[in-house]
Amino acid sequence: DAGVTQSPTHLIKTRGQHVTLRCSPISGHKSVSWYQQVLGQGPQFIFQYYEKEERGRGNFPDRFSARQFPNYSSELNVNALLLGDSALYLCASSLRAGFLANYGYTFGSGTRLTVV
Amino acid sequence: SQQGEEDPQALSIQEGENATMNCSYKTSINNLQWYRQNSGRGLVHLILIRSNEREKHSGRLRVTLDTSKKSSSLLITASRAADTASYFCATDRTNFGNEKLTFGTGTRLTIIP
Question: With contacts defined as CB-CB under 8 Å, which chain B residues touch A42?
C-alpha cells in the first residue's frame, strides 16, 4: 500500500501568486488534514476534511482554502501568497481519531513552499 | 498556537545512552502522540497513549502520561545514531469528528557516535 503522497515536493512562487498543493491519503482513509510547519516550529493545523466535508479549520486567513474529492484526495489552495507563507505543508490521513484511536496519523513527506 | 512545550529544546547524548524528552500541554485530551521528523521532512508516528493510560512501551520507546500534571515523557533507550531527529508531542482533542492534532515545539535530539 502506498503511503500518503503529496505533490509537488518543492515549489517556488512569487508574492501575490496562487498555489495548489495536492494530497492522496492512504487507501481506506477518509479523513485528510493539512498542517503548516514554519522552520523551527511544530506543525500548525490548517484544515481537516472527512467524507468531503470540512470538519475543522485552524486559525488561518481566508486566503487558505481546501477541498476533498470523492476519491478522498485533497487540495490545499493559498491565494495572494505572502512571504510568511513560506513553509513545509504537510498532509495527514487517518482511519480513526479521538478516544477510539489506536494509531496515529500518517503524514506525507510534505511540500516545501518558498515565496519570494 | 502551540498546545504543548517540549523540554529540552535540544539534547545531545552519546550513542548507547538513554534520551528523555518531556512534553507539557494545556487542555484535556483524548490521547497524546509522539512523532519523529528527520531533516524537516514528513512526520513519522512513533507511539500513541490514550488519556486513560499511564505508560506504554514500543520497542526501545517508553511513554508516560500524567493527565493530572498535563505532561508526558518519551524515553528512548540504548540510543543509536539513526535516532538523530526532531521529536514532537501532539495532543488529540478530536470532538464530534472534528479531528485536530496540536503539536508542541519539538526537541532536537542529536546522537553522537
Answer: 2, 88, 90, 103-106
Mark yes or no for CB contact B103/A94 under 8 Å. no
What value, to the nearest 5°, has the Cα angle with vertex B27 and ends B95 and B56? 85
Residue A89: closest CA among A46, A31, A40, A29: A46
Q: All 3 cell numbers of residue B78?
A: 540504548
**pLDDT classification of A33: cutoffs 50, 70, 90:** very high
Size of interface A-B (CB pairs under 8 A): 95
Q: Which of B10, B91, B50, B103 is nearest to A45 (CA)?
A: B103
CA B113 → CA A57, B17, B20, B80, B81, distances in Å?
A: 43, 11, 18, 8, 6
Task: Tell me if chain A has a CB within 8 Å of the CB of B100.
Answer: yes
CA distance B18 to B76: 6
Strands B107-112 and B10-14: parallel
pLDDT digits (tens, 9 = 90+) for B37-68: 998 788 999 999 999 999 999 999 999 999 99
Asked if the Cβ–Cβ distance from A98 to B35 is below 8 Å, we say no
Average pLDDT over residues A35-51: 92
- The beta-carbon neighbor of B30 closest among A55, A59, A99 is A99
Whether B97 sits inside 8 A of A55 (CB atoms) is: yes
* Residue B37 amino acid letter: Q
